[in-house]
Design goal:
Neuraminidase; single chain; five-stranded antiparallel beta sheet; 45% strand; mainly beta
Length: 359
């Protein structure tokens, strides 16, 4: 199904007054005046107007639903074809209980595709994010209720489960894989119960050291279905910057030197690239081809589910409403394509589908 959207950029005042911490950083909990949409900045999101439903995200066996994590398979291996969409479901099928989902499914990126099961296991209980290893399609999955990071092969095999106390998890929530321009690879994991961000080094011989690289992000200690905490991790390899969506503070912060930092920085010391409206309970984000981020809200008013383009240099540059149904539809975003033809895929929890936004 294709739906053509009207383009809309919200205009606002042309300035922002920074309170307490200054424009270059500060604790996102100390809110700044709302950053306006900057109509002078170039936007990719503003020119994408067509919505295409790719297919269902429901596990075809168990009925697990409510898709949260979303990623793109980098290589073909096992059940998975390069370019497939990898999804994890947060709710179970029989009772539709928040946080009881245990499934990872795949979906070919063509309209009308049917989901196929990759894995279903208790170690995935409350799966919130997925991140494939780009060399072998091993899928790392954060499991909020299981309090672990589960790793599954592309054929559904249970490769490993990373648990406490070996790893410093505190209800893992967000996750991303990144390789810096210098060739340093790592998985980054955020924690919903203590507001920390961890880095797990990946070397040619396996897993390296685990380092807590940031602490002090805002959390709301919410139950499954209402969790706001550091999430939406997005890595820019050109800058070696890890962007963190601070949903409870309606902010997006940048962690510099993410692959090499040796000790934890305080969230209050980080550069905040966007804060306040139109951000409203954001949870997910992805990197656009021009280096901007696209961020998804979850607490908009009924009839509104905003994608928001955030420039690290110019702040918010565009918004677009991609679902006019119930609020809280947007969980999981991934981007592919080029500057000329960007493609934004997102999970729509109102319909339990993956949707493509494109030209």
């Amino acid at each position: 199904m294709n739906i053509v959207l009207r383009t809309g950029v919200f205009a606002a005042s042309s300035f922002a007054v920074c309170l307490v911490c200054g424009c270059s950083g500060g604790n996102p909990s100390f809110f700044q005046q709302p950053r306006p949409v900057n109509p002078a900045a170039k936007s990719l999101l503003a020119h994408l107007n067509t919505l295409t439903t790719i297919g269902s995200a429901v596990d075809p066996v168990s009925g697990d639903q409510n898709p949260y994590g979303l990623a793109i398979a980098p290589v073909s291996s096992g059940l998975v074809t390069a370019g497939d969409l990898i999804i994890c479901d947060f709710n179970d099928g029989p009772t539709n209980t928040q946080g009881d989902g245990e499934s990872i499914v795949g979906l070919h990126p063509a309209p009308g595709s049917a989901p196929y099961r990759i894995a279903h296991d208790p170690t995935l209980l409350g799966c919130g994010a997925v991140a494939p290893n780009p060399t072998n399609d091993f899928v790392w999955a954060t499991a909020f209720n299981a309090n672990d990071v589960a790793i599954f092969g592309p054929n559904g095999s249970d490769v490993a489960t990373l648990t406490t106390p070996t790893f410093p998890w505190n209800h893992p929530w967000g996750q991303i894989f990144g390789t810096s321009a210098a060739g340093v690879s790592a998985f980054y994991v955020s924690n919903a119960s203590d507001g920390s961000v961890d880095r797990v080094a990946v070397t040619s011989s396996g897993l390296g050291a685990t380092t807590v690289i940031a602490t002090g992000f805002s959390i709301n200690s919410g139950a499954p279905g209402s969790i706001l905490a550091p999430s939406g991790l997005t890595y820019d390899p050109a800058k070696d910057v890890l962007y963190v969506v601070d949903g409870n503070a309606n902010a997006v912060s940048a962690i510099p030197n993410a692959s090499t930092i040796s000790s934890a920085v305080s969230a209050s010391s980080l550069h905040v690239i966007a804060s306040g409206p139109p951000l409203n309970g954001p949870i997910s984000s992805a990197l656009l081809p021009d280096g901007d981020l696209v961020v998804g809200n979850t607490l908009d008013a009924a009839g509104t589910n905003l994608l928001i383009e955030v420039s690290p240099a110019a702040g918010v540059v565009a918004t677009k409403n991609v679902d006019t149904g119930a609020a809280g539809a947007l969980f999981g975003i991934v981007v592919t394509g080029t500057l000329a033809n960007p493609k934004i895929y997102f999970n729509d929890d109102n319909t339990n589908t993956v949707v493509l936004l494109s030209h």
